[in-house]
């Protein structure tokens, strides 16, 4: 297990084509002082071209700071507020490639399915982790998606809400099953 600190916020999303505001809420230096294992930023892409340019410049500065402090940046490509359609999944795959090009040390994506995850793992030269997703559905569905993620070669998962916002007994069950799945994985590279 690792502690990952989100260092940004994206809020006021009112439409699928942006309309939000992206801001840093802390620094890489502060994250290092806190002793976390990595920092994470959202990388929303359904924003204006001008906002994309600003976002990419911000990511570049954070990558440089992370390199200086020897702490990884987890970058999360996302199409904010969009339903999980095939088109959105394809867009997020393309944005994951941009995140790689910008120097992300780890890329966090919403689970696109086992086959697409395997393809991204093969293509990207940095560890890929999968988001645990929103609190929804049956515990077994969550655990199954995590199993598919690991079988596809992803380096891990980042789960928060899908554990902490469940009833305690359900959250403990998810955590136990995730532990069992992840302990059974060995990485060769």
Look at the helices and sheets and give the structural class: alpha/beta
Strand/helix succession: EEEHEHEHEHEHEHH
Low-confidence stretches: none
CA gyration radius, whole angstroms:
16 Å
Q: Would you tell me the overall average pLDDT? A: 85
Oligomerization: single chain
What's the total number of strands?
8
What coarse outline follows from CA principal-axis ratios? Answer: globular
Q: What characterizes the major β-sheet?
A: 6 strands, parallel
Strand content: 15-25%
Q: Helix proportion of residues, in percent?
A: 40-55%
Strand order of the largest sheet: 1-4-5-6-7-8
Please report the distance between the alpha carbons of the first and last residues: 19 Å
Given the structure, what is the number of helices? 7
Explain this structure to me?
The protein is of the alpha/beta class and 189 residues long. Helices cover 47% and strands 19% of the residues. The chain has helices spanning 28-34, 49-69, 86-102, 114-123, 139-151, 161-164, 168-183, and strands at residues 4-6, 8-11, 21-24, 38-44, 73-78, 106-109, 128-131, 156-158. The strands form 2 sheets. The protein has a 6-stranded parallel β-sheet with strand order 1-4-5-6-7-8. A two-stranded antiparallel sheet has the order 2-3.
